Amino acid sequence: MAAESSDSEEEDLVSYGSALQPLEEGERIKKPVPLQEQTVKDAKGRYQRFHGAFTGGFSAGYFNTVGTKEGWTPSAFVSSRQKRADRTILGPEDFMDEEDLSEFGIAPKDITTTDDFASKAKDRIKEKARQIAGVVAPIPGTTAFDDLIGPSKITIGVELLRKMGWKEGQGIGPRVKRKPCRQKPDPTVKIYGCALPPGLSEGSEDEEDEYQPENVTFAPKDVMPVDLTPKENVHGLGYKGLDPSQALFGASGREHLNLFTGGSEETSNLLGDLRHSKGRKLGITGQAFGVGALEEEDDDIYATDTLSKYDTVLKDEEPGDGLYGWTAPKQYKSKRRPEGEIKYVGKVLAGFSLASKSSAPIKIYPPPSLPRNYRPVHHFRPVIIAGNENCHLQKALEESTGKLESDPTHQSRHALNAAQRRQQLGETELKGPAPSILEYLSEKDRERLKEVKQASEQQMKAKIVSQQSPNSRFQAASPEDATHKWRMQLGGQLVNAGSSDFKPFAKNPEKQKRYENFVRSLKQGEKGETLERFLDPNMSEWERGREHEEFFRAAIFYRSSNSTLSSRFTRAKYEDDVDKVEVPRDQENDIDDKETAVKMKMFGKLTRDKFEWHPDKLLCKRFNVRDPYPDSSVVGLPKVKRDKYSVFNFLTVPEPTTSLTQATNEKIQESSSLNKPSKKSSRWDVSDKEKEKKDSISEFISLARSKADAQQQPPVPATEKCGTGTTETLPTVVTDEDKNQEEESRRPPMDLFKAIFVSSSDEKSSSSEEESDEEQQPATSERESETTKQADISDNSSSNLQGRSVTATTDSGISSLPTSKQEDATEEFGPKLPPAFSSGRFCKHLGRKEKHRKIRERHKTKKERKRKKEKKKKHKKQKNKGKHKNKKSEKDSSSDTTDSSDSLSDMDTTGLSPKELLRR
Amino acid sequence: MAFPRPRPARPELPRQRVQTLQCGQGAVRAARFNADGNYCLTCGSDKTLKLWNPHKGTALRTYQGHGYEVLDAAGSFDNSQICSGGADKSVALWDVTTGQVVRKYRGHAGKVNCVQFNQEATVIVSGSIDSTVRCWDCRSRRPDPIQVLDEAKDGISSVKLSAHEILTGSVDGRVRRYDLCTGQLYSDYIGSPITSVCFSKDGQCVLAASLDSTLRLLDKDTGELLGEYTGHRSTTYRLDCVLNEQDTHVGCASEDGHVYFWDLVEGSLALSLPVGQGVVQSLAFHPRLPCLLVATQGQVTLWREDTFQPEGDPS
């Protein structure tokens, strides 16, 4: 609309659809209602209501009630003389809603075509019936007029199909090209099973002969629906029973039908149907009495059914088809079948055809022929218990049953072992670990063993026979007999009895030797007497007997366990070396000399360890770094295998160290550190140095350092020991820990201690005795006395530490804690975390608590330190002893964390000049 | 930034307190600048991690998800992720905007003392008191570390990363430097338990603070001692040391409530900054400005140079 108004001059414009309403100023575009919120309403705006009360549904009546908003109001009956109340007859419509009366309701008020007036074109059967009726009717052709005025009521599906181009009588589907020449089915083709009858499968053939031009397509054939009436009776398939009309009218009816089928095939399909149904109609409607107009031949319709038409005598052959009213299809009636064929009497079901070949006769298997002497009576044999003493009875019984057990080798199946069973069953041997040593022997050896075995068995048998003499009963306990007994038990398997690794008498080598000889001879099948000679001749008879028996037992025991166990285990595929362990190839070597280096501030080569380290490939990737070892699969430090139980894995063996002279270096550093903090002009004040800022720091520093070194380069000789550092207070008297720590960091030089403690030997505590060991040790340095003094000092400091730990609970004016609370301190390794609030600025009590904890921790660390100290001393003791032993110093291997206090204890290793250190 | 490059004259040190953040998360275990220094992270002992704008003094976000004290944190180069390690033995990777834990890496046997991102934030390196350094992969979903560096004999107190190096300081008194480029491990013996290590900005020196109240500056390549700085007190706690933005000064926290700054070359004490009464727990120096972040007790203070004017106090 808007377009039209705006473009009024362009009249030839064509506009489709309706334009949208123009938006007004300030009006918001309405959002479309989403689908889930859209509701359906009926014409009157009622919510979700499609049905009237009678048609049901979820909303019937007035909100699911009958009546109106006010409810159901009964109408009052009013009648007066002037105005009579007429009787109202209420129909169902009076109770209906308007929805029920609408187009889709139960009683639509719209005018529609009823079935009576509907177009019957779609119903072929009805149409046919109607046409037949028209033909048969007294005035034929009347029904033709019906079609002229017939209103059409066709379903929507048919209408749609029609609009798509479908015409009645056609099939549905795409148009097809018909083949110009239809192949006739080959008569020689055998059809098995359910083949369609030829007429049905190929459609009607009468349309085939037409000329069919190219590119002409045809609608597909209409498909007649399959009759799917269920079988409701209990008759056989296809049975129809006696047709009363046929039976009643008898041969005349049959002849009549035969006439029709034989003659007028050219009549229309329509009439064929009619004729077929005519016989039925004869008796019922009476319409067809007399001869119809289209029938050529008059029928003897007035003939009565006489008994002469019935057979009274059974005959062999019937002249007719012998069906007598069986309603077989016509083609079977008419066609004669070839002789010899099994005739199928009855109607063949639609879709089935008779088999042309008879099926093969069922093979019958006769029952087995019984043997001649078979008696169908079973006798139970009496059971003979094996252990029955009465062998005579047993024999008698066996004889009576006629089945003497002649085969002695036939044993009970439970007596067989797996191998025997396998042999009987003919199975192949399982692949697995060889059950005995025999398997490993060569063929020749096995042969030899077998021979030996047989020989021994024969010997044994002979022996037994010879000993079946009267004295056998009394000699039962003799060792010789025992030998045989054992031998019998051992059998040939004794050859497996190992010689090498089983040593039951390893404790007694003599006995073990005897045992080995015994076993060897036993294997070779020697007799008891010869076995005897391996026993100790010095023994008494009884002892010998015992040992004999013992050896036998041992041999048996070994054999059995060997063979049974060997079958259950397999060999290890990989040799596991149990006594190897992986340890890092390189280890950070001992820290003692490092510590001295640190003390001398000789950082660099001395304190540095350099290892080959393999980063993970992925780590290199993530860091965008080329893998330094692209070929190696090692990650981390490369490892080597060492002996697991080697002590050297756990001890890092240090190089022998000599006592060092450190005092001079100490002195240098001390003096330099004393010099440094002195206030001098900052480098930032110097303007000419500003250029150097661009340089790297290391260069800068080395420059500065060289300068500083030049200042204090003359190394202070040892002679001016006592010169410096006297202002420092003595660390022994200081109880405050923190102060002490500070003082440890900048301790006075050794000379000071020396000056003080050179004469005071009473300071030595009990722990200094091991230090005295060190005194005796010949030091490589020339100044032995100095080392002892140093030892004194270190000892002193350790005693200081102890003293400190005692006093720490009371320091800095904080109330001491009960020592029992020390245990509940949580795990603390390394530097601790600072307390949250130490001075109580935020909350007093919390701070106090924290302080307590802090103290506790401090206390604890001190204790630990003390413990460490003691440990260290112990180490030292051992060390010194070791030194005494082999004049070789062995460093202790403890690589524990070194506190600042540890440095004190390591004073004994001082005394080496830095040059010496560097040379190493 | 618009700040002009400082004249070759004397570099400024932070001497003026310009902000105080009352963190309200217990003791602040660590305060860290982000990559560009505009924001900072504070790790609280109340299991939280907080993101601040320290220059304005505004708290931006709280990250909750640790099971115990948070001991260290670091931000990624693009400010999109945070990693943190805590006393719950886990390392967490956070998304900055959502505040959710993206991943949690478990595997340490003890408290995680220190965490660091690598340059591209693809690896988190964490050090723990279980004496291992673990390198966790942020890219894949594998739960175990890429590599475990277990050479230390005692707890790891500090970890720093450069482009291709991992620097660790351990309580066993050694500073170890793992060079991925050359495939070498350099182990420098200091003796005293190391509390903190850091690289210098030029990447040629290593600064190590130890429990003998000494800071040592070592040459990275040779391990030689370049400088030694004393005067503060550090005997018990794990305290941080820093280098300033131009590598001219070294700084260290102290247990006496001060922050000390020394001239790097001369070794002379340049500044002693009184922060508070308690132990100064953590230090962080701005990457480009003379700006220092100091955590003590429950608060974090921001210090600037003397000439700094808090421009109009925008907030």
Automatic annotation (TrEMBL), chain A:
Residues 1-13 have a biased composition (Acidic residues). InterPro entries: DUF1604 (IPR011666), G_patch_dom (IPR000467). GO terms for cellular component: nucleus. Residues 399-410, 682-697, 736-749 have a biased composition (Basic and acidic residues). Pfam families: DUF1604 (PF07713), G-patch (PF01585), HTH_TGH (PF26093). Residues 723-734, 895-910 have a biased composition (Low complexity). GO terms for biological process: mRNA processing. Residues 790-820 have a biased composition (Polar residues). Residues 153-173 form the G-patch domain. Residues 1-32, 399-418, 661-920 are annotated as: Disordered. One of its GO terms (molecular function) is RNA binding. Residues 842-888 have a biased composition (Basic residues). Belongs to the GPATCH1 family. PANTHER family: G PATCH DOMAIN-CONTAINING PROTEIN 1 (PTHR13384:SF19). This is GPTC1 protein. It comes from Nicator chloris. The gene is Gpatch1.
UniProtKB/TrEMBL annotation, chain B:
Gene3D superfamilies: YVTN repeat-like/Quinoprotein amine dehydrogenase. It is found in: Cytoplasm. PROSITE patterns: WD_REPEATS_1, WD_REPEATS_2, WD_REPEATS_REGION. Its main location: cytoplasm. GO terms for biological process: mRNA splicing, via spliceosome. WD repeats lie at residues 21-62, 63-104, 105-137. GO terms for cellular component: catalytic step 2 spliceosome; cytoplasm. Pfam families: WD40. Keywords: Cytoplasm, Repeat, WD repeat. The keyword Cytoplasm applies. PANTHER family: WD REPEAT DOMAIN-CONTAINING PROTEIN 83, WD40 REPEAT PROTEIN. Belongs to the WD repeat MORG1 family. This is WD repeat domain-containing protein 83. It comes from Nicator chloris.
